[in-house]
Design goal:
There is one protein chain. The chain contains no helices and 11 strands. The protein is an all-beta fold and 123 residues long. The strands form 2 sheets. Strands 2, 4, 5, 6, 9, 10 and 11 form a 7-stranded mixed β-sheet that branches. It has a 4-stranded antiparallel β-sheet with strand order 1-3-8-7, with no helix packed on it. The protein is globular and about 40 Å long. The N and C termini lie far apart (37 Å).
Length: 123
């Protein structure tokens, strides 16, 4: 599976962005999809995940109520809608695919990673 994230940019605090992650290959619908981010000088952290069928989603406490992840299996694409953005959301955002049996927030469970897209939120 090859993943290509896009949609990053510069936005003012309180604004919105939608990230997309397009996957190649025929295993997308069998993969749980996750979003992670890495801010300068910090370790990469979990943001959100969505199960294969989209029936289950989990979010980090820091983004709950502001971010929403969704997917379109017919288009091999997963999305991250980010609203009410804060300067602390500034980071490189990565999408990743997991073939684990259950949906997971653990980075080590994700087998494939996209190249990342930069999100910068100005105050």
């Amino acid at each position: 599976v090859q993943l290509q994230a896009s949609g990053g940019g510069v936005v003012q605090a309180g604004g919105s962005l939608r990230l997309s992650c397009a996957a190649s290959g025929r295993t997308f619908s069998r993969s749980h999809m996750g979003w992670f981010r890495q801010a300068p000088g910090k370790e990469r952290e979990f943001v959100a995940t969505i199960s294969r069928s989209a029936a289950t989603t989990y979010y980090a406490d820091s983004v709950k109520g502001r971010f929403t992840t969704s997917r379109e299996n017919a288009k091999n694409t997963v999305y991250l809608q980010m609203n009410s953005l804060k300067p602390e959301d500034t980071a490189v955002y990565y999408c990743a695919a997991s073939r684990e049996l259950g949906v997971t927030t653990a980075q080590g469970a994700y087998d494939y990673w996209g190249q990342g897209t930069q999100v910068t939120v100005s105050s």
